[in-house]
Every structure is written in C-alpha cells, then in structure tokens.
Amino acid sequence: MQGDGPARQAVAKRMNKECQRLVEFLIEKAFEYKLTAALTKEPEGFLNHYGRVLVQDSTVIKLPDWLYEVFSGVSNGSSKVCNSRIQVTYDIKSMTLIDFSIDSYSKNDLKAAPELELLPGDLVLRDRGYLTMGEIHRHIQAKADCIYRHKTGTTYLDPITGEVVDLLELLQGNDYIDQIVMLNNSERTKVRLLSARVDEETANLRRMKAKKENKGHNPSRAVLALMDWTIFITNIPKENANFSTVLAIYGLRWRIEIIFKAWKSHMNFACIHRVSQTQLMIILKTRLLRIMIFTNHLYRSCYLIVLRLHGRQLSLLKFFNELSSNPERIGMIFRSLAARVLDQYDPVWASLKRYCCYEKRTRLNYHQICDALKFSTLFQADAGLS
Questions:
Q1: For the segment 36-47, what is each residue's pLDDT rounded down to a tens digit?
Q2: pLDDT value for 193
Q3: Is the separation of the CB atoms in 88 and 67 below 8 Å?
Q4: Ramachandran area for residue 154 (φ above 0: left; ψ -120 to 50: alpha; else beta)
Q5: Alpha helices in the chain (DSSP H)
C-alpha cells in the first residue's frame, strides 16, 4: 500500500553530498540576505558606541552512539555518549545570528574562542569558558571591547610594582572596586577590574552551586569567599561605563541561552535518530537554516513592526512556539511582509500582539533593558557605584 509521504529509502538516497552542498549554499545566502531599510531600527544609547555587540556561546546535543569516533563525547568503562557542540554567535544590535559551526564535543569553548572574527568597534560578551589572557589581548589589538566574569586561577598584577595582587585581600573590606590591573602574560596587558559585593543569599546560592558542580571536590576557602562579590574584567574605559552599566550590559549575554531554549523547546533541534554522518550534517544544517530564517528574518521583522504598530515587544520564546505550533502562520507573515502591510488591524500583526508579546510585569524584559541603556545614568542610581 502506498503511503501518504515519500519512502524512507528514497529520502535517504537523496540525502547525499550534493544535498549537503545545496543546504550549505542556502545557509550562505541566508547570511548574506539583508532586510530592507524600511524595516530596520537604529539602536540607541550606549550600544551606539559599537558596530556589533556579539554574544558567543555553545550548546551540546546528543547524537547516535555509533558516531562517537567522529564527534567524540563522554565515556567510562561501561558506556559512552556521543555529543556534538554547536558554536553560535549572535549580534544583539542587528538581532541576527551571524555565524555558527557544528563541531566535535572535544572542541571546547577555549579552542573555539580564537576563531571569532573581531572587527574594530565590536563589543564581545562571552562566559568564562572562553576566557584566556590571549583572548583579552587579541580584543585590545583589534580595537574591540570585551567583558568577562572573573575566572578562578586568573592572576592579576599591580601595574606599578608588578607584584601579584591578592584578590581576596583586595576585596575584603570593600563593597566596590574599580581599578586597573595587569594580566600575567608576556604583554602585561592592562585591564579594568571591577567588583561589587552581592547579598548573602546570592553568595550562598553560588557556593552551593560550586560545591555541586565540583562533584565531591570542594572548592578552596578562598574561591568560596570570592563568591561574595561579582567580579568583572573589561577593557571598556571607566568614563564610558561604571559597574552597574557593565553589569547590565553583561546581562544581555543571557539572550543566547533564550535562543538555545527556543531551539530545543519548540523546534526539536536536539531530536536525532540513527542516520549516517552525511545525513546528520544535512539534518543539522537544515534545522539551523530554518532557525536562521525564524530569527534573522521573521522574528526581527515582526518585532519591529509590532513595536511600531502596537508599542509591544515580541517574546522570542512565544514567537518560536507560535510558528512551530501553527506553521501556516509562516506563509501569512511572509505574504504580509512582501506586500508591506503595516496596518495595525491586519490579522497577522494583531495575532502576534495577542499571543507572542511579553506580559506586563514590573521586572524588565530583555528588550526593555536594551532600551534602558540609552540613558547614561540609568544604572548609576546607587551613589556608591557612580
């Protein structure tokens, strides 16, 4: 009996190298595609200092075990798990994905860090997994700014004496610090060290998490004591941003986690069945192509239009959920965009306003924080941080 869809064998036969090259070509064109100027919105405020505000992070997906030799993973004496690491770079200013790679699990964030292309005027937000003294120096050489959280084991030197700074001794007795230190590398790179004390509940939660993640090997007393402070290192000049502003900017890095959550919750990105290596790459790249279309073109355009027509901001998670649950909406949105329908009563935009916008709440959402950065003194309410 003939089924409703194509035979699995027929599909597998056509998922070959030529199909993979076609998908890669489409991804390249999707990266090159630019929205019409009528749909763009110039960013405002502090972020105007930068041409791009890049967030880089990675997510891990489980693959069929038989691909272990290609992608590696984790193993012990009785079992092994095959994983792949997806590296992603997102530009906050343009609201677009600008790069991704599908790598073996053994290629960790430290190895991927030097591959990020830096341009003059960039601001890069990454977690501690990417932090090396060489990376910070590379940013300075490229005339790009960066913000990192302090990483255990990082050594700072006094810029005058050249002696090692006892970080815990420096912080104790101070609720706030903002000073220049040198990194312990051959270039003696100068960076700005900022810190502010956190409340006791936050510090205790950090210590609980650190003990849990160390799997029985408790962190040292000094490391646990340092969790009383939030500590940043950056090359952003003091006159451009105080601690509160740096804290708010670094908080934008969480956007990439929301993007990963949208992939895994609403797009079945991590759902992989037993396939060949070529078929796997086609599946992953096709899904990334779909995600690029959703993120770079549909979400960005719809966000700007709904904001213009209704003064409301689209939630990325709700938007992905809506399009995944109701795929017919994708064609409707494309038709409205192509026809340049910008009527607030149009059912497409009215539906997005109703089902995909943030709920009204006292806590600021991601876009409100971005908009708030246009006020240079907004995050300087605490006189001790001014």
A1: 433 444 444 667
A2: 96
A3: no
A4: beta
A5: 8-14, 17-32, 68-71, 109-112, 133-141, 167-171, 200-213, 221-226, 243-251, 255-266, 277-292, 300-310, 316-325, 328-338, 347-356, 366-372
What is the domain range of residue 294? 273-372
Instruction: Look at residue 7 and tell me if it is in a domain.
Output: no
Closest CA to 65 of 85, 81, 78: 81
Read off the pLDDT of residues 116-149 as tens digits, 9 standing for 90 and up. Answer: 999 999 999 999 999 999 999 999 999 999 999 9
Residue 357 DSSP label: B
Does the structure show a pLDDT above 50 at 109? Answer: yes
Q: How many domains does the chain have?
A: 2
Q: What are phi and psi of 210, to 5 degrees?
A: -65, -40
- Chain CA centroid to CA 213, Å: 22
Tokens encoding 27: 């991804």
Q: Is residue 20 part of a domain?
A: no
Are 281 and 212 part of one and the same domain?
A: no
